[in-house]
Write a sequence for this structure.
């Protein structure tokens, strides 16, 4: 077997006194869909941001296609252009229309001409079924629509890997479906994805492996089937049970937002 | 037959007969205003970015500058800035060195053969000090607008592979420069009024022209009212223009 | 003053001879300005269209004219304006009038913003308790609005105390004028007295704007007011 696309080795990260990640390691093979889940404040979002170095880890290594991102001479901007990221709160550029939000990366980072970039952006918007809204500004779109533009913004760069940071947890329940559908489509097309989410339905449908994180460490790993039938650890059992109880509800209604958000 | 005019109209015509002085004063006031506003904008943007995104030293220096300027009266700053070269020159002389040349001036001959002073130590002092003062106020407004653009958007730009500077330039600044317009309008409307400090060090601005006319005609009320009206029109026009710009640059839906 | 005074004695000389008038001008400007501003704010928030228009016109006029022009206008432009005041104090009154009229135009904006930021639901709740409109304003809206105005007010205070320096132009012996007296008595010391004056001003502005700007804003947030 050839080397994994992404290797995350022994990542540590603290915010001031608070130790958020305590030695997290995992590999992601090409074409894999990795789902990371766990209680709020367990360090999931921080972990994602450590992968593309938006939050550099204190210790550990991240290796993407053989390049160690912790090396000081690695061109991080170039690396980030190959790792897509979709945010919990979308983070669209408010002064740009949907189409320009998506074409900004190709133009400014990949150096495409305006026409080429717009053409590619339109393709990406079609993939997320947002082409009709291309000329709208973010503030004129619903949350689900904004998130789909956010996904298109990541897709358009042809990334080798896309990171999803709780992409549906800031959405009203009736808007979650349209975003999950788009994510399913992308997963089925063979895109490598690392997804932080509590949407177990999505996980069961496409996840190759699920990782349960609590208090900054990986507590348990396994297939969706494994977690559905026989989770080994007590903590995973409890957490899944709580999700089960809340199934059909929206767990974020009871769980406050991740604590690490405030520090990032 | 001489038509007898009402007293106030007669006074107004007398004052208006000094239109040369008024126009010369107004043009000095306007050039002080625009120079200071533009200089303050670019330096202010530098300080705002330094305070928001700079390292601890850059950010401390920017903060100290802004607070020093905002905490002291413009008149005191102006006099300090005006006297400093004289003080320095005196010290140099005491040390046996050559004093600074401070009585220079750049003059042109006007169309009517009169000598017009374009620049001298006093006028230069006014340009620089008004600009440096406005810098601090504009920096605060700009920083507020920059801070109002969520840090997450900058992260999103970086996640696409844009550098930090690139993200600031193409994501943060376009939004903050739009958002700053309403508060920035305050400074743009404050500044024309504060150009009157030029009068204190003998620069012939609009207010100095009023003084000159009063000394000749003793028509205090008419002169000061007329000058007040000119400033009022100036400030109103500037505010209107900025309101219009603000309207045209609004981001739809926000 | 004796020859070559040391820096601390210049400091105290300026404070002793200049500060009283500077503070009197500031206090009068702010207090009369507050009354004018409150009236204007009420006219704008609760008045009919015509009344609101008058208040807006007032604000535009007094925000558009330089303070120095106002001072000269009232000190020299309208003889007999202060016929009821001892001639000795007429210039002082002209400066106070100018400061107050202008500050009123700015304080009106501050107070109007603060009044509007109080949730109208609270006024309804007060009316539901049986309070009159006036009572609801006096006991529910006003106490919150005044607190919310504090940060902007501290800025207005700083503007007024700094602008009292313009009074020196019409011969009022405030701190800047006193500083020039020091310079005139000690021509070899052109620079230090002005630096000391700048420091005095910093002492009288920075702690106050900082306290109200930051701590007060935090307090308001804790109360769930403002934002």
């Amino acid at each position: 077997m050839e080397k994994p696309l992404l290797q995350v080795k022994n990542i540590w990260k603290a915010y001031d006194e608070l130790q958020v990640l305590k030695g997290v390691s995992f590999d992601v093979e090409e074409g894999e869909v990795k789902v990371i889940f766990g209680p709020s404040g367990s360090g999931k979002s921080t972990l994602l941001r450590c992968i593309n170095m938006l939050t550099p880890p204190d210790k550990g290594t991240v290796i993407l296609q053989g390049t160690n991102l912790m090396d000081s001479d690695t061109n991080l901007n170039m690396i980030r252009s190959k790792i897509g990221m979709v945010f919990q709160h979308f983070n669209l550029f408010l002064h740009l229309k949907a189409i320009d939000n998506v074409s900004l990366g190709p133009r400014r980072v990949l150096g495409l001409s305006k026409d080429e970039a717009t053409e590619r952006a339109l393709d990406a918007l079609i993939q997320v079924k947002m082409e009709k809204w291309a000329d709208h500004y973010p503030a004129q779109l619903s949350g689900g629509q904004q998130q789909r533009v956010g996904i298109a913004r990541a897709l358009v760069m042809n990334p080798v890997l896309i990171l999803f940071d709780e992409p549906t947890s800031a959405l009203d329940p009736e808007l979650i479906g349209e975003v999950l559908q788009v994510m399913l489509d992308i997963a089925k097309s063979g895109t490598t994805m690392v997804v932080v989410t509590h949407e177990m339905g999505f996980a069961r449908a496409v996840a190759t492996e699920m990782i349960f994180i609590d208090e900054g460490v990986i507590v348990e790993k396994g297939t969706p089937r494994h977690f559905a039938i026989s989770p080994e650890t007590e903590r995973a059992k409890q957490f899944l049970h709580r999700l089960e109880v809340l199934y059909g509800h929206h767990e974020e209604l009871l769980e406050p937002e991740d604590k690490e958000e405030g520090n990032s | 037959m001489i038509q007898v005019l009402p007293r106030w109209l007669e006074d107004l015509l007398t004052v208006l007969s000094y239109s040369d002085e008024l126009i010369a004063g107004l043009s000095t006031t306007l050039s002080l205003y625009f120079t200071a506003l533009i200089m303050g904008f670019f330096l202010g943007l530098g300080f705002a970015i330094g305070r928001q995104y700079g390292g601890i030293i850059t950010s401390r220096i920017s903060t100290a500058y802004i607070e020093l300027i905002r905490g002291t009266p413009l008149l005191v700053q102006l006099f300090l800035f005006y006297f400093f070269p004289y003080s320095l020159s005196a010290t140099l002389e005491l040390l046996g060195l050559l004093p600074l040349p401070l009585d220079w001036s750049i003059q042109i001959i006007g169309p009517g053969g009169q000598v017009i002073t374009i620049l001298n130590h006093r006028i230069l002092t006014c340009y620089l000090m008004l600009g440096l003062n406005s810098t601090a106020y504009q920096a605060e407004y700009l920083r507020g607008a920059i801070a109002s653009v969520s840090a997450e958007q900058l992260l999103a730009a970086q996640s696409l592979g844009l550098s930090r500077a690139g993200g600031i330039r193409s994501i943060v600044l376009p939004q903050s420069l739009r958002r700053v317009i309403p508060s920035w309008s305050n400074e743009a409307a404050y500044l024309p009024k504060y150009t009157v400090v030029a009068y204190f060090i003998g620069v012939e601005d609009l207010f100095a022209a009023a003084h000159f006319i009063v000394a000749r005609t003793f028509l205090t009320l008419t002169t000061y009212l007329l000058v007040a009206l000119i400033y009022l029109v100036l400030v109103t026009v500037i505010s209107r223009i900025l309101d219009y710009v603000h309207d045209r640059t609004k981001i739809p839906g926000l | 003053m004796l020859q070559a005074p040391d820096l601390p004695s210049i400091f105290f000389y300026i404070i002793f001879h200049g500060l009283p008038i500077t503070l009197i001008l500031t206090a009068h400007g702010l207090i009369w300005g507050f009354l004018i501003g409150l009236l204007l704010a009420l006219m704008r928030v609760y008045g009919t269209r015509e009344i609101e228009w008058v208040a807006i016109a007032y604000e535009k006029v007094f925000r558009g004219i330089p303070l120095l022009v106002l001072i000269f206008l009232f000190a020299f432009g309208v003889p007999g304006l202060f016929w009821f005041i001892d001639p000795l104090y007429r210039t002082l009154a002209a400066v106070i009038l100018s400061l107050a009229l202008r500050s009123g135009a700015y304080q009106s904006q501050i107070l109007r913003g603060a009044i509007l930021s109080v949730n109208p639901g609270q006024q309804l709740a007060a009316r539901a308790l049986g309070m009159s409109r006036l009572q609801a304003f006096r006991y529910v809206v006003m106490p919150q609005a005044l607190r919310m105005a504090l940060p902007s007010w501290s800025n207005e205070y700083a503007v007024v105390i700094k602008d009292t320096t313009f009074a020196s132009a019409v011969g009022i012996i405030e701190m800047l004028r006193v500083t020039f007296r020091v310079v005139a008595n000690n021509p070899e010391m052109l620079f230090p007295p002005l630096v000391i004056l700048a420091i005095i001003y910093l002492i009288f502005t920075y702690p106050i704007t900082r306290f109200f700007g930051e701590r007060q804003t935090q307090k308001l947030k804790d109360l769930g007011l403002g934002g």
Q: What stands out?
A: Chain C has a mean pLDDT of 88. Helices of chain C lie at 7-46, 49-64, 67-77, 90-117, 120-128, 133-163, 175-185, 192-222. The interface with chain B takes residues 60-61, 63-70, 72-73, 76-78, 158, 162-163, 165-166, 168-169, 176, 188, 190-191, 194-195, 197-198, 201-202, 205-206, 209 of chain C (CB under 8 Å).
